[in-house]
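RECORD CONTENTS
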Amino acid sequence: MSKRSRRYLILILVFVLFFDSILVGMYLMIDAKGDKTENQNRMGMGKVEQKVESVKAAKQKKGNSLLVLVNKDNKMPEDFHLPLVRLKNGKFVAEKMYASLRAMWFDCERENPSYSIVVSSAYRSHAKQSKLLQEEIQKNERLGMSSKAAKKDALRTVAPPGFSEHQTGLCVDITAKNFQLLNRAQENTPENKWLQKHCKDYGFVLRYPKGRETVTGYSYEPWHFRYVGKKAAKEIARRGITLEEYVREQ
């Protein structure tokens, strides 16, 4: 083989090796890209909508947890949690509202020596809320209602687990000590009249006011007070609006 022929052969071999290396590189890039996409989907990174929802819930909690809206249409964020404080009667409330609740309680009884109030219900766990709903359904069934009618009627007054404010620790059911029934007659007690008039000064609002059932989704409950902080409570009371309407404007 001549010298010139050997030179051409070497050039051809170099060209072939160079071309092969380019093809291999392209294949590896494509394969790596495919693996990356597969890994993202497996970890949930591709679920943008889900990620956005979880971020919104976190922002709500981080921003102002006192205004968290929990009702029939708004489930309590799964990552929502506030430290709790135990009352003397064994009930638990959010630590953030404890001092205000204590002040309202003491002032009510100090200003009116004949008054005496009781926190009959406060924080509830998921299991407790579920039990209450089932008990209400069973009570209706014993009255002769069908299963469907019993559940529908129960949901008018008892929220399903995850949709009850009591699970936030930010609300309390307060009654007069000598009349501890959770019914509309509670509004006739002097203790309840004082609470409805002064609760805003301590950061509380009457959560389910009379005549606003279509907004709150619940019947009038003169015993159910929700802590939202003094600023929000005073504005809600001054304007005669509900927490739903106030939060919507924020």
